[in-house]
Amino acid sequence: MMLNQFLLLSAFLFGTGIYGVITRKHTVLVLASIELMLVAVNINLVAFGATLNNAVGQVFALFVLAIAAAEVGVGLAIVLLIYRNLRSANPDDVNVLKG
Amino acid sequence: MFAALTSANPHVDFLAISPEIALIATVMVVLIADMILPERSAWQTSRIASIGVLVSLAWVAVIAFRDPIAPMFGGSYAIDDYALVLKGFFLVATYVTILLSVDYIAEGDYYQGEFYFLLLCSVLGMTVMASARDLITLFVALETISIPTYVLAGYRKHDRRSNEGAIKYYLIGAISSAVMLYGMSMIFGLTGETNLAAISAKIGTLPDSKVLALGVFLSLLGFAFKVSAVPFHWWAPDTYEGAPTPVTAFLSVASKAGGFVAMLNIVFFGFGLQPSLWWLIIWVGAALSMTLGNLSALRQTNIVRMLAYSSVAQGGFMLVPFAAFGLAQSHGDAAVARGAMRSVIVYLLVYGAMNLGAFACIIAVARRTQSGEISSFSGLFQHSPVITVMMTIFLASLAGIPPFAGWFAKFTMFQSIIEAGGGWGVTLGVVAGVNSVIAAYYYLNVVRSMWFRPAADDARPVQVTGALGASLAVCVGLVMVVGVYPSFFGDMAEAAAKVLG
Q1: Is B19 left (phi over 0), alpha (psi -120 to 50) or beta?
Q2: Is B156 a domain residue?
Q3: pLDDT category, B197, cuts 50, 70, 90?
Q4: Where in the sequence is the domain holding B316, given as residue range(s)?
Q5: Structural domain contains residue B34
Q6: Rounded-to-integer distance, Cα A88 and Cα A92, Å
Q7: Is B195 helix (H, G, I), strand (E, B) or coil?
Q8: Which residue of B152, B348, B499, B501 has the lowest C-beta tally within 10 Å?
Q9: ipTM summary value
Q10: What residue in B sits closest to A20 (Cα-Cα)?
């Protein structure tokens, strides 16, 4: 098995996701970066599951997929709400709270 | 084919999961009732929701008097004293939150049925969390708690502050879930198990690898976001200020407790035998949360933001017994380890009662003054003495002053860390002691301004509605009874901590 290659790919994707979360300005791009992190998790789970010959890894990945979909739905709804109120989805424009 | 399926069916004890079934039924009834009921009687959904929570609580009591029940679903779902005590706590906290919400939600321009629907979904996640003994169950429960609260935090749809609080809370929550999952995937990869008991059995035999340390570190980092521990606490004040106040009470008590129960499960049942991997992380998190939370609370002028930072600091106090557990496990002291778990549970129960009470007072006062500033509490005693006395009780309890319940929580916390001993234990005890004094200053500052400052021109007394009064009565009752007779919560936590064996 090429476990190491899969783990390296997943670490690279996770790192890219973290980088995107920190540097991107637009909220939708931040959401996309979070999805990248979750994809990294799924690659990890499936690769470990296949190597260990343990179906639990795949089952866990399915749960992660389903819940990530629900989560991103709520996130896009909040972004849409902010866009309606402010005509902008840039986090820098959302800054009334301080202290 | 069907024969094969039936023989593979797991044994399910429906009585054991009846609290969850009752909640799911209530969730559906609330949603349907909201469609059928006309607009002017939409407040009836709050009545349905509170009855459902009480029914679920009654089932918890019924199960508590039954014989012990074996873990179900391949050991991933346990119904023991630990789970039952925490389920009871979550359900009572939710009942009080519904009482706090009734008038606030009915008077504001909000959708009512959906509010209670989301609240109940979140509680369903909490009751599952109390029983979760498997990484997958734990993750699903944590998301069931979190996703409805993202929506609730943004429930004041046309208020920019609420929008901002919701998006910050959502982004932090989603990022922390991803980080936590990455850690969990590594733990799964190394142990080949998702069941916490099986992980615990394997984790002690694994060689001391960097990958395991990274997995444990990342999953704890994810929980640090959920329980708003420093350095991942900065979303809390913004979200708490923006959300409707009853939601803030819910977030700071029930949702935070959900994060702590997740952490209890994974640390006490999963990583217990490898304390060297995590105790220092938690030690530092506890010390920083207490210190930075309290120092930031000192300079707040808005009472909700002050309580937000205070809840960060209280979360730090709750992390202290986790560090004590790690120290106890590294010298293999089972009695001290049990004491640490008891002290986390006592702290959760007491903190729930006193913090919900303080928020009930704030909601009552803000109904008249329409302000969250601490200055709006000036001279409250002159026109509303009863609410002033109650707020004083809750703040004194948060500061840990006897004879109110807070002293007992602080006492068990100090007891656990001093018993764990050693230079690290005593140092953390001293940090906690200094922080208790700082915290007392800003809590008592509010008390001083209520009793001794001159009142504003508007001296109409604060009206307390029936539902708010009932929630205040529950909280004051608990804080007074536990303060004078601490074994009421102490015995419950003692029974719960027996699951550690």
Answers
A1: alpha
A2: no
A3: confident
A4: 278-501
A5: no
A6: 10
A7: strand
A8: B501
A9: 0.92
A10: B175
Distance CA B389, CA B475 (A): 13
Please report the pLDDT score of residue B3 as a whole number. Answer: 39
Domains of chain A listed by start with CATH number: 3-89 (1.10.287.3510)
pLDDT band at B8 (very low <50, low <70, confident <90, very high): low
| Residues of A within an 8 Å Cβ radius of B | 14, 17, 21, 27, 30-31, 34, 37-38, 40-41, 44-45, 47-48, 51-52, 54, 56-57, 59-60, 63-64, 67, 70-72, 74-75, 77-79, 81-82, 85-86, 91, 94-97, 99
- In chain B, how many domains are there? 1
Tens of pLDDT, residues A20-77: 998 887 888 999 999 999 999 999 999 999 998 888 899 999 999 999 999 999 999 9
Of A30, A40, A96, the CB nearest to B161: A96
Rounded to the nearest angstrom, the minimum Cα separation between A11 and chain B is 9
- Model's pTM, two decimal places? 0.92
Distance CA B23, CA B20 (A): 5
Touching check for B185 and chain A: CB below 8 Å? yes
- Dist CA B279 CA B327 (whole Å): 7
pLDDT digit string, tens, across residues B219-242: 998 888 888 888 888 888 889 988
Contact: A85, B160; criterion CB under 8 Å: yes
- Tell me if A78 and B237 make a contact (CB, 8 A cut-off): no
Confirm if B352 and B477 have CB atoms less than 8 A apart.
no
